Amino acid sequence: MPPVDPSRNKAKPPVPARNRLVPVDGSSDGVASANGRAAPTPLTAAINGRRATFDRVVGHQANGRCPSPLEIEQIKQKNPLEERDEKVNQLLASRYDSLNVLITEAEAHLKTLKPIHSVWITYGHTDYDHGYEDWETLGLTKINDKWRLAHAYDNLINEEGFIRLQPLAECPIEVRVRAAKEIRRLQEEIIKSKEDFVPSVEAAIKELTDFCTGS
Fold first, then answer.
1. What angle, rounded to 10 degrees, do the helices at 80-111 and 183-213 form?
2. What is the pTM of this model?
3. In Å, how far are 29, 51, 119 from 25, measured between CA atoms?
4. How far apart are the C-alpha atoms of 41 and 48, rounded to whole Å?
5. What is each CA distance from 198 to 102, 141, 189, in whole angstroms?
6. Spatial CA neighbour of 176 closest among 69, 119, 89, 92
7. Around 102, how many Cα atoms within 13 Å sit in the side-chain half-sphere?
8. List of residues 6+ apart from 155 with CB closer than 8 A
9. What is the full per-residue pLDDT of the chain (215 aa) written as tens digits?
10. Three-state secondary structure string covering 129-170
11. Parallel/antiparallel/unpaired status of strands 146-155 and 163-167
12. 4 to 1, 8, 179, 200: CA distances (angstroms)
């Protein structure tokens, strides 16, 4: 019988704590729980939490069972609210682009009407206590010597010109949306202003004719 090697009976040296594997069940060396099992330490719980997340992502549950394709797809699915938000953002982005293009086209069309002077309409009137009132205005006016479709605010006590006057195309989206349904009324007002101006032109012609003919 061959001699027994004494080194085979020696106890193995302990594994350093930093090299130990954290048990999947959350147990931890030296920390007892009420039911007699070792309670997880914060570090153990954190590691196990990451392991569970990793197992779900790669498709392996902590119990060793491989999830079905349906379960994997459910894991990958987005939160329903996130999906709705993504869809509405895409929808609004395309609609904003369309709205901006149409505002530019509307401005170009109003310029072809050859207005005589600035024309404004009011809408969105809001009444307050003590008789105070404010409103929005939409008009075709000159800004930096160019005819622009413009928006501004005004109120009963303002005596210094329009408030926050700027081209409609540069206004916040809520302002552009509210103004869109007023543009046709502005078109009508521009035409009416020219019709109202005809008698003044006729009177001027008569005055000059009389002057030149000595009448």
1. 10
2. 0.61
3. 12, 11, 78
4. 10
5. 31, 20, 15
6. 92
7. 13
8. 132, 133, 134, 135, 163
9. 555 555 555 555 555 554 454 444 444 444 444 455 555 565 555 555 555 544 554 444 445 567 777 766 666 666 788 888 989 999 999 999 999 999 999 999 999 999 999 999 999 998 887 778 899 999 999 999 999 999 999 998 888 889 999 999 999 999 999 999 999 999 999 999 999 999 999 999 999 999 999 87
10. HHHCEEEEEEEEEEECCEEEEEEEEEECCCCCCCEEEEEHHH
11. antiparallel
12. 9, 8, 98, 128
Question: For residues 122 and 189, what is the distance between their CA atoms, to the nearest angstrom?
Answer: 11
Report which residue type is found at 86.
E
Structure tokens at 168: 């409609």
Query: How far apart are alpha carbons 195 and 18 in whole angstroms?
Result: 91
